[in-house]
Amino acid sequence: MGRDLPQRLREKRQNDDHHRGAHQNHPPGLLDEEQRVGQPLSRGVGGHLLTRNSSRMNVFQSLDMETRFNLLFKNPEKFFRLLMERVDLRGKIRPVKLPAYKKRFSQTLADWIIYHQKEIITKQVTWMGVPLWKNVLDLQIYQEIIFELSPEVIIEIGSAHGGSTLYFAHLCDILDKGTVVSIDISREDFAVTHDRIVELTGNSTDERIVRKAHEIARGKSTLIIQDGDHSKEVVFADLCNYSDLVPLNGYFIVEDTVADVFNPGNSVGRRIEGPLHAVEEFVRQNSNFMIDESRERYIITQNPRGYLKRIK
Description:
Helix content is 40%, strand content 13%. It is α/β, with parallel strands linked by helices. The strands form three sheets. Strands 7-6-5-8-9-11-10 form a seven-stranded mixed β-sheet, sandwiched between helices. A two-stranded antiparallel sheet has the order 1-2. The chain has a two-stranded antiparallel ribbon with strand order 3-4.
C-alpha cells in the first residue's frame, strides 16, 4: 500500500518516528498541521486537537486533504469517526447570523411554552378582535380537523370571551355547514353573537346541560372541545358524559393538558392532578378512543396527549 501513496505522504511516513519522539502527546498526522499554521492546537469535539481559529468548526473540516489521507492510513477508526461527526454536527455548527435573534433561538422548547403561556395566549391572541385563549398552532390543527370531518355540531365546553367560539363559527361559514354549541357557566365575559352559535349557560356536568347538548347533537357528526374546568374530576366527567356523541374517526379534544407536563411554579404546571390525568384514565377504561399524537406535529401545543380520536 505504501508504494501507492503520493511521494510527499511516503516521505511523511518515513519521518513518523522522529515526530513521535519529539511530540509524544500529539496524535499522528496532526503535528504537521500545527507546524503549518504556526499556532498551538486546542481540544475540540471529543477531545480532538484543533487550531484556535478552527475550534468552533467541525473537526473533520478543519483538516486539509493531506492530513486526512495521513489519518485515514494510520488511524482509520478515528478518520471515520471524525467523518461521521462531520455529518452529525452539520446542522449544529452554524451559528445564527443575526445577533438580535441569537438569544431567542437559543431558548429551549420548554422556555417557549412557558413564554407563550405567560405572555401570549391569555394576553395577545385574538380572533376578529375578541380574546381567544388558545395556542395559534392548535388553532391550525382545529382548522385541519374541522375541514377533514366537516362536523354538523361543534360542542365547546368553556368559551370565556368567545373568541374561539366565533373562530369555529367562521370555519363553519366557510364550509357552509355546522352549529357551534357554547357551554359555559357564565356569560359575563362572552362578547360574540353569530347565527351558528347556540349558548348553553350552566355547569357542563349538570344533567340539564348534558341533556340539552345531546338533544342538539344526537344523530349528528359531532366534534367536542373541553376547555372548561381543568380539574381531573370534571374533565373525566365531561369525557364520560359527552364522548358518546363523537362518531367513528371523530375527536374529543381536551385542552391545556400541558399543565400536567410541567412542574408547578412556572405559570404552567399545577399542584393538583389536571386534564392529562383524566385523559390517561379515560383511555385506560375506554378502548373506543386512542391518543392521536399526529395532531401534535407542530411541537408547541397546549394539548399534549389531548387529541382523542374515536377508533371503534
